[in-house]
Design goal:
Blueprint: H1 12-16, H2 18-35, H3 37-41, H4 53-66, H5 72-77, H6 82-85, H7 93-109, H8 114-130
Helix pairs in contact: 2-4, 2-7, 7-8
The structure holds protoporphyrin IX containing FE.
Protoporphyrin IX containing FE (HEM) binds near residues 91 and 96.
Length: about 140
């Protein structure tokens, strides 16, 4: 049996499961590469011109922790400090909306539905809005 958790209520990670959370992170960047060239170009790319695998890996770790799963991102990279880590990119309304389109498409792919989906849509929109740092 695993150690009892300090917060026993199921969190989004528990409800979705590890595989679904990993799928959301993967599909998020797949959509970005396929449909959002401007947003893709803001990210670190590999020699092949595709998103650098580390970008995918870091976000996948972050997402699992942010949804209530293992705090692996924190252990490896420290506190996310999202506004600070996004300071070098111009996050305007267009970038925010492109980001959210990718995330909502990924959540669709992973069949995240119902009240949890409504909650996550809202939380992602809140964070994306909070990260805006440029006019327009
Ligand atoms: C609002 C529009 C957003 C834009 C344009 C954006 C763009 C970016 C870019 C360009 C990077 C750098 C990747 C790299 O080259 O290393 C990044 C990293 C990251 N973003 Fe965003 N992002 C947005 C929203 C969000 C949101 C809403 C979240 C969380 C819910 C998020 C979480 C992260 C994380 C965790 C990283 C990795 C930080 C690191 O470890 O260096 N981003 N983002």
């Amino acid at each position: 049996m695993s150690e009892p958790s300090a917060s026993p209520e199921p969190n989004p990670f528990d409800i979705l499961g590890e595989a679904t959370v990993a799928l959301v992170a993967k599909r998020f960047y797949d959509h970005m590469e396929a449909s959002e060239p401007a947003l893709t170009a803001m990210h670190r790319l590999g020699d092949d011109g595709r998103l650098h695998p580390e970008v995918r890996e870091r976000f996948a770790l972050f997402l699992a922790g942010w949804l209530g799963g293992p705090q692996e991102y924190m252990a490896r990279h420290g506190h996310p400090r999202l506004r600070m880590r996004h300071a070098k990119v111009q996050v305007d309304t267009a970038a925010r909306d492109a980001w959210l389109r990718c995330m909502y498409a990924a959540l669709d792919d992973a069949k995240v539905e119902g009240p949890l989906r409504a909650f996550l849509d809202m939380r992602f929109a809140d964070v994306a809005n909070f990260l805006r740092n440029a006019e327009g």
